[in-house]
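Batch manifest, entry 17 of 40.
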Amino acid sequence: QVQLVESGGGLVQAGGSLRLSCAASGPTFSRRVMGWFRQAPGKEREFVATIRWSGGSTNYGDSVKGRFTISRDNAKNTVYLQMNSLKPEDTAVYHCAASSNWYAGASADFGSWGQGTQVTVSS
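Output type: structure tokens
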């Protein structure tokens, strides 16, 4: 069973940066692709980014391209989300997720989820 623990959220001013971490444990075949999703109050869950553990290929949502970077440290079994040039509309709870599907992209493809970490960007 995959376990995911996020950290690194907080309050930051617009234009600032934060780095989120997701520590993963459990079978590696169950977390071939790691993703970050976010959900703001009253809004649907939104795709942020994904990365493959093997090879490191990445994908990003249109709203974060050029500002956010997803990466992983295989030795630490940790995935990161570096968030730069933050905007108030980035305010949300950010969730880490894991999938056994090499082509995972939509939230329905991910079977394991962390508890989430709050990111608040003030204007």
